[in-house]
# Entry
Amino acid sequence: MIWGLNRAYEVEEQRPWWKLALTIAGLTLSMAITACAALFLLWLYATNGAILIGGEMNSEIEKNAAARHNHTSSNKISRS
# Structure
């Protein structure tokens, strides 16, 4: 990425090799930490998402779905 930006802006690298190496290592480490944090948050949401969002909301949705199902099945029976 650094070399591509240098080439795009038509500049020559002025930093010593050790500063460049530290910059590359720091960027790589920060990207790895960010990716791990993102994966951890996805896992946390997948395993505890219903609890965090609220189980009550989910049970209300299930109750409404069951009520609609019972209502439509009773209409089918009465029409027969």
User: Anything to note?
Assistant: The chain has one domain: 16-79. The first helix runs from residue 2 to 8. Helices lie at 2-8, 17-53, 55-79. Residues 16-79 form one domain.
